[in-house]
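Researcher: I'd like a candidate sequence for this fold, 316 residues long. If you have to choose between options at a position, lean toward the conservative one.
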């Protein structure tokens, strides 16, 4: 990965962050995308060893306030400030106009430089550019476009970002049923399209699906169909974008950040069922999915494939 840049949208937590760890360890650079600045900032800090863990270092979204030409908390040592909000730290230089910090350097010890817009820190660079992050919402094409405008080149793209509802047809509204397609399918489709101008000739893309595509664990037909559609999207894009390589990773249930957000009861029941259903009798680990993604990033003869890090779940 030496000298190569991996863009990971959804890289602030979970599987995406595990992939980022591997890219940095292998000598590459990462650009993390997600919707929450504090999460991205904390992830960047863990990747560069400036903070022990994302939760321990997660700063408030806006911990300093500059209003009406007066800094009410925080220190501005150069520049002109008319008003705005400074997030987690001290502005050591910068220019502020029209109530918004339009450029500046934040020296909180975590973010060494960054651009502040709309009153909050929306991007940052750590360790001379080895890790950088930028706020993006894959549901918003303008946001995706601005995200890729700020990226020099994309050697690897991984897009695990998604937010959706799953469940039976009989129980979900149409809007809920469509949400996996809206967020997970079209979010990744638009991310790839808007990345095209920045893809290098030997770039590789890994899309995120899920092994529910081939074996539904519970009634959730639209979610199942969405994952199958993403696997098809990977094959279609591999044909269109060659020699750029496009592959898909389709994990089983993973014991990690996503399931930690759910109640103990829901998580334990899902893990027990998965342990009964998978050949390897346990849920997977984020590290095991990240290893599969790294293989797809780096194996130069892989394209149009879907890998299933699922412990043999799909076979039983
Ligand atoms: N974990 C599993 O068991 C499993 C199994 C099969 C498939 N998958 C697939 O893998 C994906 C990632 O899983 P994970 O375990 O890594 O989840 P995770 O820990 O929840 O991470 C998802 C990341 O995506 C970001 N994100 C969500 N919606 C976004 C949006 N609209 N725009 C930009 N960023 C967004 C989140 O940050 P913000 O909220 O701050 O934006 C978060 O950092 C899942 O969505 C799922 O489709 C997971």
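Model: Candidate sequence:
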């Amino acid at each position: 990965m030496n000298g190569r840049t991996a863009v990971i949208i959804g890289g602030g937590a979970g599987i995406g962050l595990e992939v980022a760890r591997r890219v940095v360890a292998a000598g590459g650079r990462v650009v993390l995308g997600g919707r929450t600045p504090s999460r991205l900032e904390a992830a960047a800090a863990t990747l560069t060893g400036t903070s022990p863990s994302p939760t321990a270092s997660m700063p408030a979204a806006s911990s300093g306030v500059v209003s009406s030409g007066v800094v009410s908390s925080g220190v501005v040592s150069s520049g002109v400030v008319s008003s705005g909000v400074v997030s987690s730290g001290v502005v050591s230089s910068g220019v502020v106009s029209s109530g918004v910090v339009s450029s500046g350097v934040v020296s909180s010890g975590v973010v060494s430089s960054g651009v502040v817009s709309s009153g909050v820190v929306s991007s940052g660079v750590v360790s001379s550019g080895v890790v950088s992050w930028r706020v993006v919402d894959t549901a918003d094409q303008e946001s995706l476009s601005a995200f890729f405008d700020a990226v020099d080149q994309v050697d690897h793209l991984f897009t695990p970002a998604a937010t959706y509802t799953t469940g039976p047809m009989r129980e979900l509204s149409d809007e809920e049923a469509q949400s996996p397609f809206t967020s997970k399918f079209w979010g990744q489709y638009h991310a790839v399209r808007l990345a095209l101008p920045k893809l290098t000739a030997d770039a590789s893309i890994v899309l995120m699906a899920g092994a529910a595509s081939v074996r539904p664990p519970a009634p959730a037909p639209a979610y199942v169909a969405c994952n199958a559609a993403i696997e098809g999207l990977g094959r279609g894009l591999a044909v269109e974008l060659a020699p750029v390589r496009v592959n898909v990773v389709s994990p089983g249930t993973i014991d990690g950040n996503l399931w930690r957000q759910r109640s103990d009861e829901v998580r334990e029941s899902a893990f027990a069922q998965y342990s009964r259903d998978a050949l390897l009798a346990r849920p997977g680990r984020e590290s095991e999915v990240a290893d599969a993604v790294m293989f797809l990033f780096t194996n130069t003869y892989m394209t149009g494939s879907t890998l299933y890090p699922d412990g043999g779940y799909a076979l039983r």
